[in-house]
Write a structure and sequence with these properties.
Elements lengths: L1 E8 L4 E8 L2 H17 L9 H10 L3 E8 L2 E9 L14 E8 L13 E2 L1 H15 L6 E5 L4 H6 L4 E4 L7 E5 L6
Length: about 180
Amino acid sequence: MQKSTQIATGTGELIEASLCSMELSHLYDYQEVWQPMLIESEQPDKDWPWEYKLRQAQQETRLEAYALEVERFAHGLLYLETQWHRSGLPQRYPLVYVQALASAPWNRKAMEDPPYLRGVGTMLLLFARERSEQLGYQGRVALHALPEAAGFYERLGMPEYGPDPDQEGLIYFEYGAIQHQ
């Protein structure tokens, strides 16, 4: 899978980007470039097991791993579960569950202001909604957010349903169906 798009730099210039299936080269970018920076700055996602996630996505059809790349370098990573999750709301609709979403350190406003690229996380989350539509789930997407990321999902208008005691108190967010006019 590969989808060409454009993304804005921190200065507002649009550049070419691709959203594609995650490959070993993207894992290398994470392990060799991102992760040392995440560890040094003590980011909460510094130990996420992207190698395991990629391997699982290659072995199980219900799991999918993607990268947002610019000039063949990973600037964002996304890991989805597409078959087993249901809405946390009473209707229990099927949905796409975002297991992990990460932006490279230099694209995080908290670490680099202005960031090198703007909108990496937004683009990945919008892709999760597109994927949900492709699967017939009408754009329904859910995730549990780290406390440091909750504001990001709130700014995107993703409804929050509070801390989930079954998920170590992580905050549950869920987009409902997209209403096409």
